[in-house]
Amino acid sequence: MTPEHPPHAALVLAGSRPGAPDPVAASEGTSHKALVEIAGKPMLAHVVDALKGSRVERIAVVANDPAVVALAQQLGCEVIPAEAGPSASVAAGLARLGAPMLVTTSDHALLRSEWVDDFIADTPEDADVAVLLARREAIELAMPGSKRTYLRFADGHWSGCNLFLLNTPRAETAIDTWKLVEADRKRPWRIAARLGAGILIGYALGRLTLASALARLGSKIGVTARLVAARDGLAAVDVDKPSDLADARAILSERPERH
Length: 259
Hints:
It contains 11 helices and 10 strands. The longest helix has 13 residues, at 171-183. It is of the alpha/beta class and 259 residues long. The chain has helices at 23-28, 43-52, 66-74, 86-97, 113-122, 136-142, 171-183, 188-195, 197-204, 210-221, 242-254; strands at residues 8-13, 37-38, 41-42, 56-63, 78-81, 101-105, 129-135, 151-153, 156-166, 225-229.
């Protein structure tokens, strides 16, 4: 690759959250949902295989469950110990791998290599941080009846795809803000104060587009943040609950295996 297009790394978040057991892992009798088998192989293996088929050249897995650590090593990935929260784990990953670094999760079982490559290709060159989201219409076209959580903006309803691109070293600033938001998650008024009155009023009046919201939020924290629209609505479907697992198994059982 040329210096203008440096090699991309990928970080897969597979840490364990403290507190109640994960419902997917509990339903399958495993210690972590990354180990749950879909179409003959663990969920984490589906994610890693998709990344290996993309332009990503280096893959690391954040994990603290011994079985997940062993699986990640078996799959040929680097392992980074999980920190206290996702933002701290991403910060540790960026310190190890450097930018540009793609971030995804171990429950993104339907991930495809072309989604990763399209996301990287569609990210504007000026972006320090990019977020992949899918329009509701695209999700319902790809998976009729799917129930997702949507962000409602002037330019439509959007759902996250668990794919982020930390495109430049300046993305570290966004991680620092993420840490503050995590710390304030039980104090929503503080999060609202960080967003600023202009963003909140525009959202409440239905006049704010998602792209504009990301750009303005990025400007407040000192980075250029960009929205990238997913080309395939299935990119927004991850495995958060047993019903999602059933859907993923049905979809992957029909997807031809690529070698």
